[in-house]
Amino acid sequence: MAPTLALVGATGAVGTVMVDIMNSRETWPWGEVRLIASPRSAGKKITVRGEELTVLALAPEVFDGVDVAMFDVPDAVSAEWAPIAAARGAVAVDNSGAFRMDDDVPLVVPEVNRDKIAERPRGIIANPNCTTLSMMAALGALHHQYGLRELVVASYQAASGAGQEGVDRLYAEAAAVAGKAVGEVAGDVRQAITAAGLGEDSPFPAPLVFNVVPWAGSLKEDGWASEELKVRNESRKILGIPDLKVSATCVRVPVVTTHSLTVHATFERPVTVAEAHKIFEAEPSVVLVDDPAAGRFPTPADVVGADPTYVGRVRQALDFPNTLDFFVCGDNLRKGAALNTYEIAEALVG
Ligand code: 2RA
After folding, report:
1. Kind plus residue range of the DSSP H or E element containing 79
2. N or C: which end of the chain has fewer CB atoms below 10 A?
C-alpha cells in the first residue's frame, strides 16, 4: 500500500510553500495525505494534487497510520508533537530548531548525507536552518572531492527568514520611503519610517529598507548571533567534520525571499576554478551561473521561487592556498525549508 504522508503546519508560511511543492512534484509515491494545523486553522480546505482536503486539528490520533509526518511549525510545537508522532509509528521530519543538534537525531541534506536518514533511534530527522542549507548542496559536492578544512561565510539574508512579520515590515518600510530622497543623511531613513507611523516593534533591530543590518537571530555568548552559531554547528554535523573551522557573519538585507552567502572555503587538496565548475555542473540540485564578463551571476531577484542552489563568482583565493571563494543564492522558503524537508520524506520511501 502506498505510504501515508502528513504535513503539520499546513496553513503556515512554510506549510503553504510545502503544499505548492507537493502539487508540483513529477512523481508521487504517497497514498493518503493528511494536512494538520492548530485547532484555529482546522476545517480549512486545501487542494493537494487535485483533491480538496480538510485540515485536521493537531491531536495524537491524527498520526495513527501515518508513515512520514513533516513538521513546519515553531520549535515549541515540534518539541512537543514530533515525539508523539514518532511514538504513534510515523517518522517525524522536523523543520524547526528543536532537535537539530541532538546526537540521536540526524540532520540531513539528501545530496550530502542521505545515508544518515537510516540512523534515527528516536524516529525523528531534522532539517537544517535555511542559512546553512542555502550553501550545503554546493559545499557538500566540493567537500566530497577535495575535503573541506576551513569555512568563512557571510550571509545576506532575506526578510522572509524572519517570517511573514519580516516580509510585512519590509514592505511597510519600502512604502514609507517610496519616492523620497532618503539614505543621503544619517538617520533620515529612520525618520521617514517613524514619520509614516511605523513603530519600534520591528523584527529587525534597525531599518531594513535602504540598509543592511548585521544581525540575525538572538544574542549568544561573546557577541555571536544564534544564526552564526547555527551555521557553524550545523555545517560540522551535516558534513561530518566535528572540528571544521568555521566563522560566519550573518547579515539581513532588504530582499523579500532568497538567502545569499559569500563562501570562502579551504580544502585539503588544491582545487581549480575549472574543476569546481565541473563539480557544480554535475550536481543536479546546483545551477552554475558564472560569466562575470557578461554580467552573469546569481542574484536573489532571479533565483526566488526556484528549487536549485545557484552558484557563481567562483574564484581561486589569491592569498590562501587550496581555497575557493564563491557566491550562492537559495530560496530560503524552498530548498532552505520546505523542499529539503520534502526531499527527506521522499528519500524515506524512495
Ligand atoms: C532567518 N534563518 O533567516 C532564519 C530563519 N530560520 O532568520
Report:
1. helix 75-87
2. N
Instruction: Check pocket membership of 11 for ligand 1, CB cut-off 6 A.
Output: no
Tell me, yes or no, if the pTM score tops 0.80.
yes
Using CA positions, which residue lies closest to atom 3 of ligand 1? 161
* Close Cβ partners of 307 (under 8 Å, ≥ 6 residues apart): 285, 331, 334, 335, 339
Residue by residue, DSSP assigns 243-280 as T-EEEEEEEE-S-SS-EEEEEEEEESS---HHHHHHHH
pLDDT for the residue 350: 86
Pairing of strands 259-267, 323-330: antiparallel
Angle at 82 (CA atoms; ends 76, 88), nearest 5 degrees? 145
Tens digit of each residue's pLDDT (9 = 90 or more) over 90-134: 999 999 999 999 999 999 999 999 999 999 999 999 999 999 999
Centre of ligand 1 from the C-alpha of residue 266, in Å: 25
ipTM entry: 0.96
The 3-class secondary structure across 54-69, one letter per residue, is: ECEECCHHHHCCCCEE
**Taking the C-alpha atoms of 183, 188, 189 and 192 in order, what is their torsion angle to the nearest 10 degrees?**
-130
Strand partners, 94: 71, 126
pLDDT in tens, 9-53: 999 989 999 999 999 999 999 999 999 999 999 999 999 999 999
